[in-house]
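FORM 7B: Structural annotation worksheet

SECTION A. Query
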Amino acid sequence: MVRRKGLALIDVIVGSAMLSIGLGVVISMSSRSLIQQADAERQITASWLADELLTMALVVGPDEYEKSYPDSGQFEAPFSKFTYEITFEDQSQYQPVEVMATVYWDVSGTEHSLVLETLIARRHGEDVDRTPAEPVDRDARYWEEIEAREN
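SECTION B. Predicted structure
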């Protein structure tokens, strides 16, 4: 019977090498996924902020927005890491205004940006009175529905 000395040592060395390679792959994948998750979080936040800018321009109207609000700046806390720029391209008095909201943020010295565009129609004429003809009593409606279900 021939004894193989050192075979167990080689098995341990090969096993350790395979284990270290496997752990290295798992750690690098975890690191990459955390980086991508943080980047996705920033992109979602930037899209929310850009949507807020466009919604405000829609609610106020493009002409009034340009008079009342700055066209660039920094968002208030807790979004102070994000800056914005909003531009209005006007073609004619009776054509929709092309509005472009750009949100910028910085990650490790690299600037990233997100751009959202939309068309907003101008308001012509006087504002429409949108108050209801009769007051809305939501509580009464709610209780009427409950009573109708019980009967």
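SECTION C. Observations
The CA atoms of residues 59 and 128 lie 14 Å apart. The radius of gyration is 30 Å.

SECTION D. Sign-off
Analyst initials: ____
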